[in-house]
Amino acid sequence: MTVRPLHVLGSPVLREHAKPVKTVDDDVRQLVEDLFETMRAAKGVGLAANQIGVARRVAVVDVGDEDPPPLALINPMIVERSEEEETAEEGCLSIPDIFGDVERSARIVVEALDGSGKRFRVEAKGYKARAIQHEIDHLDGILFLDHLSAVKRNLLLSKWKKSRKGQKGYLKEVTPEPAGEL
Ligand code: NI
Questions:
Q1: Residue 121 counted as domain residue
Q2: pTM of the full predicted structure?
Q3: Can you point out the beta strands (E) in 43-128?
């Protein structure tokens, strides 16, 4: 397992529509392991492959509850969502120190492949449902900022640009982050 550098806002791969996995092979299982390792090192609760520079439809989520266990999602698809939505603050490991309130479905049902290529379904509510929606967005090249009003987004973008002053490139070696970022 390897902790990989994170791609941050500005890296083109974050805007790519990730490609479906055709076969769940050792490469894909390695990618899942690296995602878990990198997510935990960065103290995140979820991570999508785009965020470590790989445009394939693979993501992991671990919001810390025991049942069901941490999720590896390969080719995930939301097959059901509640009409009810909830608004809560989100961050993103690819946009460090920037937070905004995002409206998401309160409950979802997701279908995906597991590490052995078997299809499974999982229902999620609340924070876990939020984390899964955030990660699937990543696989479609969507960032939480895209869900905000233009005014709010521009405000956060200028804050981001200020915080980036003097930094070159769009790779960030993983150092501990505040807990709770997606
Ligand atoms: Ni994110």
A1: yes
A2: 0.93
A3: 46-48, 58-61, 71-81, 85-90, 100-105, 107-113, 119-125
Catalytic residue among 37, 90, 135, 181: 135
CA 79 to centroid of ligand 1, rounded, Å: 21
C-alpha of residue 163 to centroid of ligand 1, in Å = 18
| Cβ contact 31:56 at 8 Å | yes
The answer as to whether 178 is a domain residue is no
Spatial contact of 72 and 114, defined as CB atoms under 8 Å apart: yes
If one counts the domains in the chain, the total is 1
CATH number at residue 11: 3.90.45.10
Q: In tens digits, what is the pLDDT along the chain, a chain of 182 residues?
A: 789 999 999 999 999 999 999 999 999 999 999 999 999 999 999 999 999 999 999 999 999 876 667 999 999 999 999 999 999 999 999 999 999 999 999 999 999 999 999 999 999 999 999 999 999 999 999 999 999 999 999 999 999 999 988 888 899 989 755 556 66
Range of the domain at 120: 6-168
- The alpha carbon of 119 and the centre of ligand 1 are apart by a number of angstroms equal to 24
